Amino acid sequence: MNPFILALQARNLTVEIHHHSAFQIVLSNDTPFTSTISGILHERIHGFLIKPHVNHFCVAEKGTLNVLNIEPYSSIGLELASRFKENEDCIVFDSPIETNAFFQTPKNSMDVNNVIDALLSKLPSIDYDERVTKIVEYIKENYYKSDITPQTFADIVFLSPSRLASLFKQQTGSSLSKYLLWTRLRQAIYITLSDRDRTLTDIAYDTGFYDLPQLNKYMYEMFGMPPKALKYSSDLIQVY
């Protein structure tokens, strides 16, 4: 069961102050950049990792930034959470050496794919309950249906909604509603960045959202940017 990792590359970036619900890793693969995190200015840094809901903004007017947004309820999100010290909201990397050491990637390499591989290598081996697996497969195949309810899931595996919710949360770390939402966002983002000719309104309807305003709302909550900014300001590296 793959976690959600949205990996983007942005050039000549200036992002207004914002926050979002994902863990975020921002890394430069060329020149240092400036970021203000929780009101503290960090100049000429090479990257950072921040917790969800931390206010921040970045300026990289001459360089390229790799941005990884990670589902907080996933196993990788929980593993990243364990790396923060008490009362610590961010971890700043002042040099590529610090980045390589933190993520255990090859020295002198700023390839974001190495970071993604390092994160994925920490996925635990879990034997999921077959009922959880069945629900995950259902969501994968039917995420675009706007009429999915907790009872929909319960009827598939013959459990009460409350019992299924507890089992799913125990095994995945995510609630059913959050898992469904992230799946819809994953698909919406992938289509947005891989098919530039599709309208955002069509993408919203085709991925299970009621309308474009609802997609805008959740995109901003999760990633701090509306899909329009994503569509025209970023290049897709990979969506997992």
- The coarse silhouette is globular
Main β-sheet description: 8 strands, antiparallel
Q: Supply the number of helical segments.
A: 10
Following the backbone from N to C, one meets helices and strands in this order, namely EEEEEEHEHHHHHHHHHE
Averaged pLDDT, please? Answer: 85
Strand content is 15-25%
Distance between the termini: 10 Å
The parts where pLDDT drops under 50 for at least 5 residues are none
SS-based structural class?
Answer: alpha+beta
The helical percent reads 40-55%
The count of strands amounts to 8
Radius of gyration: 18 Å
Q: What tags apply to this protein structure?
A:
42% helix; 240 residues; single chain; alpha+beta; eight-stranded antiparallel β-sheet
Describe the structure.
It is a single chain. The chain is of the alpha+beta class. It is built from 10 helices and 8 strands. Strands 1, 2, 3, 4, 5, 6, 7 and 8 form an 8-stranded antiparallel β-sheet that branches. The longest helix has 19 residues, at 176-194.
